[in-house]
Design brief:
Layout: H1 2-35
């Protein structure tokens, strides 16, 4: 029974350490993105062409 309690406490400590690491990673990434907003930008694979409003037409389906 004592070993089960030790195992439980050890696994709880490991999970708390992992959660702290994830929280730290999220904080650092958010700070990095705040200081450089283009660092996290995803490039558009298919950029839309710039159309003149006069060239656009409405279509009825």
């Amino acid at each position: 029974m004592r070993w089960l309690m030790i195992g439980l406490l050890a696994s709880l400590a490991a999970m708390l350490l992992a959660v702290a690491g994830v929280a730290r990673h999220i904080r650092l990434e958010r700070a990095r993105l705040r200081s450089n907003p283009e660092a996290g930008a995803i490039p558009d694979a298919h950029p839309k062409p710039m159309l003149d409003p006069a060239e656009e037409t409405d279509r009825e389906i």
